[in-house]
Design brief:
single chain; alpha+beta; eleven-stranded mixed sheet; two-stranded parallel ribbon; 29% strand; disordered N terminus; binds 2-acetamido-2-deoxy-beta-D-glucopyranose; binds zinc ion; Alpha-carbonic anhydrase domain-containing protein; CA_dom; Carbonic_anhydrase_a-class; zinc ion binding; signal
Length: 267
């Protein structure tokens, strides 16, 4: 049983993290995937990250691998201009490690622009603890808003460290609670779930401070060519919300990678 759960989780995570396969079809597949019949699919775990490179050499030979340890001055380049006012419509589920959400399509998706390019929101998910560290410190969790081009190919991710604060998060209020995201062992897909994505910004200082760099997917296949923006201000959730989030999450942080060709804050 445990093996099945781990395998399911590993399979779904490969599909749910910023990536290749359109998330909604991936999630649909997850629901009826029997890991014991597809042992080849379950090839990696967070517990043995050194093994990721066996099937995906770039995980160890890459020079722009994510996540990294961030510190120093905030970035001035690639400032995003948000157009998040459209309500998102999509499917809420659990990627085996925490809540995840996939938009139905890019047509009316929230977007941001920078450097003359539009990035469409594809979906989001969380990691626990945080993937990125700041001044060497992890946060209890991290939210990833995955964006792509109009065709749905992932190309940029916004990361938000999640910490406990005095106020309840209006963003997380939309995905926690009785009608919120299912637990890590559940295959439930909650369709037609609406999200006001502006709340992710208002809960975290409107993205005024950030670090940007050239990075990769933080799970196999560790594909590079993804631009990252990590908020310099954490998104705060209430103690109750953090407890609830952790209850439907499993450890899913990749070790921080050596800074090489990431060009933090550079054009
Ligand atoms: C969104 O996608 C889901 C899953 O494919 C589908 O059931 C639902 O009808 C779609 N909703 C809209 C508004 O297109
Ligand atoms: C920004 O725009 C310049 C000029 O079009 C282009 O060369 C560069 O690759 C762009 N950078 C990114 C990250 O898209
Ligand atoms: C992260 O960066 C801080 C500040 O430069 C440094 O003190 C710390 O040693 C770094 N930690 C890691 C794990 O790289
Ligand atoms: C997880 O959710 C499923 C329903 O999707 C439920 O049957 C199961 O009891 C839940 N597990 C826990 C530990 O809450
Ligand atoms: Zn992620």
């Amino acid at each position: 049983m445990f093996r099945t759960l781990v395998a399911l989780a590993a399979l779904s995570s490969a599909l749910a993290c910023p990536d290749h396969t359109p998330p909604s079809s991936a999630l649909g597949r997850r629901a009826d995937e029997n890991a014991d019949e597809h042992p080849a699919e379950a090839t990696w775990t967070f517990a043995d990250q050194a093994a990721w490179a066996v099937d995906n050499p770039i995980c160890s030979t890459g020079t722009m691998q994510s996540p990294i340890n961030l510190s120093g001055a905030f970035s001035k380049v690639y400032a995003p201009t948000f157009k998040y006012d459209n309500l998102a419509i999509g499917t809420l589920s659990n990627w085996g490690y925490g809540p995840s959400y996939s938009l139905n399509g890019t047509a009316d998706a929230p977007t941001f622009t920078t450097n003359g390019t539009t990035y469409y929101l594809l979906g989001f998910h969380t990691h626990t603890p945080s993937d990125h560290t700041i001044n060497g410190k992890s946060a209890p969790a991290e939210l990833h808003l995955v964006h792509g081009d109009a065709s749905g190919a992932a190309k940029g991710v916004l990361g938000f460290p999640l910490v406990v604060g005095a106020e309840e998060s209006e963003f997380f209020a939309q995905i926690l609670g009785p009608t919120g995201a299912p637990n890590v062992t559940s295959n439930l897909l909650l369709d037609n779930h609406e999200m006001d994505m502006r709340k992710a910004l208002t809960d975290s200082g409107n993205f005024k401070k950030y670090w940007t760099y050239r990075g990769s997917l933080t799970t196999p296949p560790c594909t590079e060519g993804k631009r990252w923006w990590v908020s310099g201000q954490s998104l705060t959730v209430s103690q109750e919300q953090m407890a609830e989030l952790l209850l439907i999450s499993e450890d899913s942080a990749r070790d921080v990678q050596k800074i090489q060709a990431h060009g933090v804050g550079e054009l």
